Amino acid sequence: MNSDKEANQETCELPIHTRDGEFLAQYSKKGLCGLSFPSRNSRNGDPLRDAPIQAQIRRWHEETTHALENALAGQPVREFPPLDLSAGTDFQQRVWKILKSIRCGKTLSYGQVADEIGDRKAVRAVGRACGANPIPVLIPCHRVLASKQKIGGFSGGLDWKRKLLAREGVLLLD
């Protein structure tokens, strides 16, 4: 049969309305597997009311919403829904684990993350893993900077990176 259709049925996308716009959370059977920044294509309605949602996903969505609100306010996120990072390679998952450990208001350079995974030469690969992070903000790839506190890149755009870091009290050298 149609495996793409079956794969789409295995995930659930739900919006999260914030003062910064509407994020889109994606859930698999294992947990939160994606988070997208607001776009101009905002959807209307409340899918939690409009469609039957599994109770487990409803709980995860509430946890995700609370965690995202804290992160967007520059506050530490203490509780996460289950995270499904199974789409990432082993290397990406190692990088994402380190990113998740970077405390609110702190930063690491791409080189420091490479050192943490034990491969100093993997600086560019660390950057690619940050760019492939499926759950930005909650897995704080915005806290990874180029050398000497320079901003570097960000999948959500540099304006988002600056905004998130400023909310956490991080001073940047542009």
Describe this structure in words.
This protein is of the alpha+beta class. The chain has 2 domains: 3-72, no CATH class; 90-167, Arc Repressor Mutant, subunit A. It is built from 7 helices and 5 strands, in the order H-E-E-E-H-H-H-E-H-H-E-H. Strand 2 (21-27) and strand 3 form a beta hairpin. Helix 5 crosses helix 6 (123-131). The relative contact order is 0.13.
Furnish the topology, listing elements before pairings.
Layout: H1 3-9, E1 12-18, E2 21-27, E3 32-36, H2 47-50, H3 55-72, H4 90-101, E4 108-109, H5 110-116, H6 123-131, E5 144-145, H7 158-167
Parallel strand pairs: 4-5
Antiparallel strand pairs: 1-2, 2-3
Helix pairs in contact: 5-6
Would you kindly provide a brief summary of this structure?
With 174 residues, this protein is α+β, with helices and mostly antiparallel strands. It contains 7 helices and 5 strands; from the N terminus they run αβββαααβααβα. The protein has a 3-stranded antiparallel β-sheet with strand order 1-2-3, covered by helices on one side.
